[in-house]
Amino acid sequence: MKFLRFLFSAFYLLSICQILTAQSVQTQVSNAVLKVYDDELRQNPDNFNVLFRRAFHFYGQNQYNRALADIDRAIQLIPAKDSDLLMQAYSLRANIYLMTDKPQLALPDLDKASQLDPSSYTLLYQKANTEFLLGNYTAAKEDYKALQRRHNRSLEALIGQARVAVKENNLGLANELVDEAVAMYPSSSEAYTRRASVRRMLGNNVGAVDDLVMAIAVDKDNKKALRDIVEMSHVDYNAVITSLSSAINQAPDNGLYTYLRASIAQAHYNYLPALTDYQTLIDRHGISNAGVYASMAECYYNLCQYTKALDCVNRAIGAGADNAPYYIIRARIHRALGNYNVALESAQLAHQKKPHLNSALIEEAYCDISLEKFSDASNLLGEAALNAPADPLLPLVRGWLLSGKLHMEVEGKNFLTQAADLTDYPQSINSLRGFALQAMNDNEQARQWLENGLLQTADIDGRAHYLAACLYAQLGDIDSAFEMMRIALQQGYASLYDWKYSDLANLNVAPLRSDNRFSQLLSANAHLFE
């Protein structure tokens, strides 16, 4: 999420003040409209027109339960002769069911709406998509073909039939259909993004990324293509980098491709290639904004090149007033240098500039831990947890602090238990559940969690195996920890700071650092850091 936020902020800058003002105005208008509807329904509770309009209003506000209550009542009251309104009502209820993950309830309403308006292209397309979602591939295929009969250049019909062909294992037909769609609309970014989705279903990740890159070439403002490329980098990093590299070779003057490759490499802990691309943006494309320098600072920090990191972050801070996040980076750098009071000042300044910036609170807490102000750190982590109740890291570190540093074992165990139980995906490595269990001395369950998590994790950048090395090290299984370290480095996990210096709670490999194998592994993988 941090990476996505950064990526889009670099290209689409908006004023926070303007957003808040617009939201306030929208809320006032919404409340006024609802008051009118409420007044009318008090006078006539059976006014189906008002019930329909209020349901539509609630739907637009994502208040699906309230929308459903109104539209259910409206459908009961709308006369059969008012077929147009009834069709709209069934369509709205179908959309509510779809938005609440109940496609099996949406389909009958889409059938009724389509019967009331058999000429509607939109209803037929929605019905076909719902049938596909429910696995009714034969019915979906017939409806997609019906779409094509209504509009022989229907992009939706071709892509829909291609998706069905994949499910029916007719891969040759699927490829023919998506190629026909792009040939029909070679200047449409949507054609490329849709072919990309089918190519992903076919397992052709390189082809899918090529299509997403083409979508951006056709429409540089295609945010969906950007999001999909980023999402795919978490599934097949090599395919994304290969495709972007090819695009850069073919269009070296397009700085967006270079920026994307740099940002994705950085997000996957490959800091040296990211730095090369960021420097290219500065030297070749003349792009030297605060975001680029801040990214370079983070890369240099992770490579333990603190002088260069400070130079870059100071450039970022000096580039404009909206620089609170950059003070957090500077705090981390000074903390790594042992300048704990200077680090704390930077973190506090970030918090002053943006009081709602949770990462500033967290960095303040980490600075206080370095200064051995453990009680202050615990309070800050508690405040941060109120803003991010789903983040298991915060109760984990707080529980570790209370138990290990403040000798408040009962309170500490409560927070560690909270961290262990917080996630909806307990077997995910990123849930950190095993670290909470280890901190409570439940080593056997921690080990079992780790072994199960590794089996279920596709580790494309070494992060999962880095965490495994940390936990095995904390469990005292040094040989297993070094095997995890070897794999993590092989997969490209290049945060030298994490390997050599990170000491946060029990989320580190500190027990390995005095062993000769540690320096040998780092030396053997020096190409990641130098």
What's the short version?
The chain has helices at 2-11, 16-43, 48-60, 64-77, 83-99, 103-116, 121-133, 137-150, 155-167, 171-184, 189-201, 205-218, 223-233, 237-250, 255-267, 271-283, 290-302, 306-318, 324-337, 340-353, 358-370, 374-387, 393-404, 409-421, 433-439, 443-455, 463-475, 478-490, 496-500, 516-524. It has 530 residues and is mainly α. The protein has a domain at 187-251.
Molecular structure report:
- The protein has 30 helices and no strands.
- With 530 residues, it is mainly alpha-helical.
- The chain has a domain at 187-251.
- α21 (358-370) packs antiparallel against α22.
- The longest helix is centred in the first third of the chain and has 28 residues, at 16-43.
- Residues 1-23 have low confidence and may be disordered.
Question: Which terms summarize this structure?
Answer:
530 residues, mainly alpha, 30 helices, globular
Proportion in helices: over 70%
- How far apart are the first and last residues' alpha carbons, in Å? 28 Å
Low-pLDDT stretches? 1-23
Shape: globular
User: For the CA atoms, what is the radius of gyration?
Assistant: 27 Å
H/I helix tally:
30
Largest β-sheet summary: none
Order of helices and strands: HHHHHHHHHHHHHHHHHHHHHHHHHHHHHH
What is the number of strand segments? 0
Which band does the percent of strand residues land in? Answer: under 5%
